[in-house]
Amino acid sequence: MMISKLLQRNKVSKSILTITILFANPSYAETVGGVSATANPVANSSGSVTNQAIQVLQGPYITNTYGGGIQCQGPTLNFTPYVTGAVSAAKPYEPFFNDPVYDVSDLDGDGMIDNPGDIIFEKRTRTGQKDNYNLSVGFSATWSRPLDRKLQDQCKEAASTQIALQRQLTANKRLDFELARLKTCGNLMKEGILFTPGTEMAKICADVTVMNKNAIAPHRHSIPTSSSPSATGVSR
User: Fold this and answer.
1) Of 130, 162, 185, which residue sits at a domain end?
2) Residue 108 belongs to what domain range?
3) Rounded CA gap, 183 and 66, in Å?
4) pLDDT, tens digit, for every residue of 170-228?
5) Cβ atoms within 10 Å of 74's Cβ, excluding its own
6) Mind listing the pLDDT tens digit for each residue in 99-118?
7) Hey, how many other C-beta atoms are within 10 angstroms of the C-beta on 44?
8) CA-to-CA dists, residue 202 to 178, 181, 199, 211, angstroms
9) What is the pLDDT of residue 171?
10) Is the dihedral of CA 13, 16, 19, 25 positive or negative?
11) Over the chain, what is the mean pLDDT?
């Protein structure tokens, strides 16, 4: 009895295994003559990336020179406006394409496509093609300032002293010029040499006055009296 039961179980297992193999075996009836009879959607993806960068070049500090070897650097502001643009397009422009739909009918039921490779119709499909435009407008700015404030104050003080010195030197040279003009015009006036009044060059000595030459100072002269003939003892 035990042996017969084992044989029956073995037969049942073989039958189950056989059925499983039959169902698991793949079927290649969808390809006939090298032509696929099933839908085969294909998705294509394409794209492009454009990188644009704005370079900010920071210049040197603004340097002011006051003479005497004094140079002071102050804060610097760099202002850089920019305009960038990009255009991308595909040529030729094709907004639609015709997607063929194949005939996969099996009217006689033999598991084979009746008209493999035949196109029933063409479906109009959008390509999604479009032009891309990009415009960027803006500006970049940088602010630079020296960190040592004490050195800046000392440089400013030295610059103020240098400016005052240059002003004093200019005033001294102006005084030397005016004194030389006064002396030259006075000496010429004493000698009776003058520019013609009303001419352009007459203005050089117009404000120069020589005392006792241009105007006579108040003064007195004694006039001697003549003696009589009798007093001299001379007879006629």
Assistant:
1) 130
2) 90-130
3) 35
4) 999 999 999 999 999 999 988 889 899 889 999 999 999 888 765 555 667 778 776 65
5) 14
6) 999 988 888 888 888 888 89
7) 5
8) 16, 13, 5, 19
9) 97
10) negative
11) 76
